[in-house]
Amino acid sequence: MRERLKILVFAAAVGSILGSIDYLIGLSYAIYELRGQGLSFLLVAFVLSQLLYAAMGAGFGLVTLIAVDLYRFLRSAAAPAERQLHLSGTIAGTMSGIFVALLFEAYAKIHSNWGLFLDFALFIPIGAAAGYGIKICWDRFLKNFLGAAMPGILILALSALLSAMFVLFWVLKGPLSITGRLAMVFATGVIFAASVLMGRMSLSKKSAGITAAYAFFAVLLLSLPLWSREPARKYEVLGKPQNPLNIIFIIADACRADAVGIYAGKNQTPNIDRLAREGVLFKNAYSQARWTFTSMLSMLSSLYPSMFVKGKTFLPPNNIEFIAERLKAYGYRNQAEIGNYILGGSSGIHRGFDRAVVIRHDYRLQRLFSCPVILKTHYLARRFLGLSQLPDTTAMITAKAMKFLDRRDEPFFLWLHFMNPHDPYNPPDQYLREIKYRGYLKPPFNPFDPFHLPEDQAHPQERDVRLGYALLTNNDKNYMRDLYLAQLRYLDEKIGEIIRKVESRGLAKNTVIIFAADHGEQFWEHGQQGHSTGLYDELIHTPLIIWGAGLKPGIVDQQVQMLDLAPTLAELIGIPPNPVWQGKSFYPALNRGTISSRPVFAEGLQMPEEMQMVRAGQYKLIVGLFTGRSWLFDLKKDPLEQRDIYSEKSSAAKELKARIADWDREKALLESRLHPSKARPEQQKELDERLRALGYLK
Ligand SMILES: [Zn+2]
Questions:
Q1: Does pTM top 0.70 for this prediction?
Q2: What average pLDDT does the segment 104-132 reach?
Q3: For the chain, which domains are there?
Q4: Separation of 410 CA from ligand 1 center, angstroms?
Q5: How many Å apart are CA 249 and CA 272, to the nearest integer?
Q6: What sign does the dihedral 626-629-635-639 (CA atoms) show?
Q7: How far is the CA of 292 from the centre of ligand 1 (A)?
Q8: Looking at 24-28, 131-135, 545-549, which range is the least confident one?
Q9: Ligand 1 centroid vs 519 CA: distance in angstroms?
Q10: Which one-letter DSSP state was computed for residue 422?
Q11: How many A from CA of 287 to the centre of ligand 1?
């Protein structure tokens, strides 16, 4: 009976330690995410998570108990007591670790993300080491021999250190590279092996030496991921801009053009409208992709998305130059404050920035550290306690912008990437009160509710059904649209603060503010909500406004592409553009001149179907690359793209297809330059000739 009690206590201890490790990760992460949310919020979150992790620990303990019982039953006194102690400790720990890892593995599989799986695999050796350490501590402490328990205590301390460092890496530098992850797995494996050796020792001078050496190597191994950091690039100063204007580059994530008041009169955005009235308003600007990552890479590198999306790889080639890098070479101070976590990690998009901070606020990231059950409980608890407010990244980024503008070094390039009006639709209370709605939906309305698959994994129609969209009434749908518009009104309020700051610091005369978006958002215009399918205008027609620095007010009707922005900025401040950039400057339009309407291209490179789009004259053609299906719309007669006339207007379709073919050829030529090893000689020659004709090559 006493023996059983001992085992029970042991199992609970292992469970709670494992729970604590996860708890430590969760808590530090939560504090990082929720800082600035006020003490009462943190306290409630703290107590809540304490309860949750205690319950989780009890679950682990139970698994351990079963494992130990099973082992004792099978081995009953067949092995020497000491050996049994070692084995049972190890098995208990490993079982618990595997249990945690399995949970995460199942979860990682849902996301088809093996990188995450590697992170979670760490828990197997961590669990094994912790369980083993506990077992040694407990058994030896029972024998009234505290000294003998020391190695066990040390193992525990190292396990905790390992977890803490893992968290630290995450917080400081985002997801580790694959090498970094492998290094962590290797390090934990070594720690575990050393733990087993140490468990065999009692405390003596010799063992103290070995312990110290062990601790040293453990820490050394743990620092391996730091070496996986991309080496900092050096930027030679190439010269001085002729017109060194400061640039504040504001992106409103997922903001479709007609959500801005001045574009369609459907929303009240007085501050953005003011920028448009006093500056240059581009009525027909189009993004080159329908989601953040590809669109921003394209905009900032002035290259079409397919130049850096290769199969499943999304990395830009090393020999391209982002606008920030170009500006850096001409003496700019560059800073980025980014509210969309997807722009973190090693995408290369931070190249050229002196400081680039990605706020990892996103609830989706909680999934990395929590199994669905826990997350769901968090979610329910949040709702139950009225803790519906996700961290307000819009306020956080604005505060950082204010600070930057107080202590700026000029000339500067400040990229403020706001998550609003992107989902989860969760406007502050005063904006919520403006919306009249009777129904069951409650903000934050979040298509990524943990009950559902992430948007990119589910087939769009399946996603609709899963999200219960099929059950939504028009009233509910309007409510979602209203929440989205309110999200933008809140951002507009913050943009007002930024404009006032620019003016009060006397910066308006030498600073341009650019207001733009990476892509739009669908509200069932073509059956879907969100921004995962199609290349319809509600997804790629984005706002573009350029204000300040003495620019004369103007309205530009001609089509421009967002990737034209980088060469335009270069011309505006008087530096040469990078010859590789595919965009064409529309600078004359900023200077009361005229530009010709050029065809606009876009690419949808994600599932469920890769697509290409060209918009020229009164027609727009979308081509599906897998199915070969094409859609043609007459934008003059049918601006909402409701009637596909592909089979009726074969001459228009043929002409636009030829434009796509030309564009493909152009991309292939540049491709051969960016990846010279793959280039065919005649392609290289042709490209060089053209670059020479443009004066880029001598
Ligand atoms: Zn976006």
A1: no
A2: 50
A3: 2-228 (no CATH), 246-693 (3.40.720.10)
A4: 29
A5: 13
A6: negative
A7: 3
A8: 24-28
A9: 6
A10: S
A11: 11
What local confidence, expressed as pLDDT, does residue 587 receive?
Answer: 95
Alpha carbon of 413 to ligand 1 centroid (Å): 20
HSE-up (13 A, CA, CB side) for residue 16: 10
Q: pLDDT tens across 414-459, in order?
A: 999 999 998 878 888 899 889 988 876 666 555 444 333 333 333 3
Residue for token digits 């790889």?
313
Question: How far, in Å, is the centroid of ligand 1 from the Cα of 560?
Answer: 19
Burial call 17-42: b when 16+ CB within 10 Å, e when fewer = bbbbbbbbbbbbbbebbbeebeeeee
| Alpha helix segments (H runs only) across 228-371 | 261-264, 270-278, 292-301, 323-329, 363-369
In DSSP notation, 109-159 reads HHTT-HHHHHHHHTHHHHHHHHHHHHHHHHHHHHTT-HHHHHHHHHHHHHH
Between strands 541-548 and 280-286, the pairing is antiparallel
Q: Which residue would you say has higher pLDDT here, 303 or 389?
A: 303
Say how many Å lie between the CA of residue 390 and the centre of ligand 1. 18
Q: How far is the CA of 40 from the centre of ligand 1 (A)?
A: 32
Give yes or no for residue 31 having a pLDDT over 60: no
Q: What is the pLDDT of residues 450-509, one digit of tens each?
A: 333 333 333 344 444 445 555 677 888 898 899 999 999 999 999 999 999 999 999 999
How many Cα atoms within 13 Å fall on the side-chain side of residue 65?
A: 19
pLDDT, residue 693, reads 56
Q: Measure 333 CA to ligand 1 centroid, in angstroms.
A: 25
38: left (phi over 0), alpha (psi -120 to 50) or beta: left
User: Cα of 424 to ligand 1 centre, how many Å?
Assistant: 12
Residue recorded with tokens 């720990």 = 93
Length of the chain: 698
CA of 418 to the centre of ligand 1 (A): 9
* 249 confidence band (pLDDT: 50, 70, 90): very high
C-alpha–C-alpha distance, residues 121 and 101, integer Å: 6
Is a pLDDT exceeding 50 seen at residue 393? yes
Q: How far is the CA of 604 from the centre of ligand 1 (A)?
A: 13
Task: Give the distance (Å) from ligand 1 centre to CA of residue 419.
Answer: 8
CA of 518 to the centre of ligand 1 (A): 5
The span from the CA of 371 to the CA of 40, in Å, is: 26
Q: Is the pLDDT of residue 679 over 50?
A: no
**pLDDT computed for residue 669 by the predictor:** 86
CA 420–ligand 1 middle distance (angstroms): 9
Only one residue has tokens 């589910």, namely 458
Residue 117 Cα to ligand 1 midpoint, Å, equals 26
Distance (Å) from CA 296 to ligand 1 centroid: 8
Single out the residue of 204, 256, 191 nearest to residue 485, CA to CA: 256
Rounded Cα distance between 179 and 324, Å, is: 28
What separation in Å is there between the alpha carbon of 548 and the centre of ligand 1?
Answer: 25
Q: In what order do the strands lie in the sheet with 611-616?
A: 600-604, 611-616, 619-624, 630-634
CA of 253 to the centre of ligand 1 (A): 4
Distance 511 CA to ligand 1 centre (A): 25
**Mean local confidence (pLDDT), 638-657:** 92
CA of 607 to the centre of ligand 1 (A): 16
How many Å lie between the centroid of ligand 1 and the Cα of residue 260?
Answer: 16
CA 341 – ligand 1 centroid, Å = 10
> How many whole angstroms from 288 Cα to the centroid of ligand 1?
12
Mean pLDDT across the stretch 74-97? 58
> Cα(291) to centroid of ligand 1, in Å?
5
State in Å: Cα 105 to ligand 1 middle.
28
Are residues 201 and 151 in contact, defined by beta-carbon separation less than 8 angstroms? Answer: yes
Q: Which of 594, 575, 580, 586 is nearest to 670 (CA)?
A: 580
